[in-house]
Design goal:
Pfam families: Phage_AlpA
InterPro entries: AlpA
Strand content: 15-25%
Order of helices and strands: EEEHHEEH
Helix content: 40-55%
Strand order of the largest sheet: 3-5-4
Number of domains: 1
Length: 66
């Protein structure tokens, strides 16, 4: 579900937005995904991918909690 009572409850991050949050290169993100150490991207179209914002924020929080 993307909306609940008119509010956005799920956002999809673009590559640019992901890079601003995580500060990793796209190549490093792809390597982490392949190794199962990063959230998988969502295929949005033939040439478009994104990441679920809440999953990325949870991943970052885990890094901060270590």
């Amino acid at each position: 579900m993307l909306f609940r009572d008119g509010e956005i409850v799920m956002r999809i991050l673009s590559k640019r937005q992901l890079k601003e949050l995580v500060l990793y290169s796209p190549q490093h993100v792809a390597r982490l995904e392949q190794a199962g150490l990063f959230n998988k991207r969502v295929q949005l179209g033939l040439n478009r991918v994104g990441w679920v914002e809440d999953e990325i924020l949870d991943w970052l929080q885990q890094r901060l909690d270590q």
